[in-house]
Amino acid sequence: MGPSRRALLAGGAALGLLGAAGCSRVSGSGAKDGGNLLERLRSQGTVRLGIAGEIPFGYIDENGEFTGEAPEIAKIIFKRLGVPKVQPVPTEFGSLIPGLRSQQFDVVSAGMYINPERCAQVIFSDPDYRMRDAFIVRKGNPKNLHNYEDIFKKKAKMATGTAYAEIGYAEDAGIKQSDMLILPDQLAGLLAVEQGRADVFAGTTVTVHNVVKQRNSQRAEATEPFQAYVDGKPDIGAGGFAFRPEETKLRDAFNVELHKMKKSGELLRVVRPFGFTKEEMTDLTAKELCS
């Protein structure tokens, strides 16, 4: 089973308490011929976006504002689809797919990697980015760690995030999950490296570089991006928005606007403030990634 971003299959995690107060659920019941959720959202004027509190993909900032790469894209697209307001519903990453399927929110807006296992549970927009991995290591990278094979060969202590794809990448290199330090997020990973509890924290390149830069760490640094492999083949980490399987009309309408943003260059302008570059832009499709 191929891994997928910061996230292996999100099927078995328990649902958290979700902050959707003041907004009734929009039911997908009776969804036929592509579903009627888009019409319901237009009537309601609000769409609830499931986020996982991960910088830079989707989070609440220090001013209490709802932002991130995926939410900022969603704000633009849903407004153009006639839904002017977006409401964040924070949860753990592993609870995003269960929460979507149980109608705790309407769309997953968390930069979720698209892979066949997830495609069996939800439908995805085409990806809005593709990503390589990077490490947080101690200043000067004393163990010279640049990929998962280095970690295995040098018996370095690896940390990564809960349900991160990096768990699968590391296992493919021979590292046992029982030997990994599994942490809530990238900030915890940075602290673990700074404090010497881990030699390396593995995450996506944008996530890793952002946290090191924002914390202005004096004891840790981020490595250069590198390509992760599974079974000897490059594993493409590309993320998009997830929808309930019956809501194909909403997904298709979303895709139309997303492709307009890609073609005009607007997409890159929107995500650049979150550390994304032209390198992360992609023309891959969900169909390719799901197969």
UniProtKB/TrEMBL annotation:
Record-linked Gene3D superfamilies: Periplasmic binding protein-like II
Classification via CDD domains: PBP2_Ehub_like
InterPro entries assigned to the protein according to its UniProt record, in alphabetical order: Ectoine_EhuB, Solute-binding_3/MltF_N, TAT_signal
Pfam entry (one): SBP_bac_3
Domain Solute-binding protein family 3/N-terminal: 46-278
Record's keyword terms, sorted: Signal
PROSITE patterns per UniProt: PROKAR_LIPOPROTEIN, TAT
NCBIfam families assigned to the protein according to its UniProt record, in alphabetical order: ectoine_ehuB (TIGR02995)
PANTHER family referenced in this protein's UniProt entry, alphabetically: ARGININE-BINDING EXTRACELLULAR PROTEIN ARTP, MEMBRANE-BOUND LYTIC MUREIN TRANSGLYCOSYLASE F
Protein name listed in UniProt: Ectoine/hydroxyectoine ABC transporter substrate-binding protein EhuB
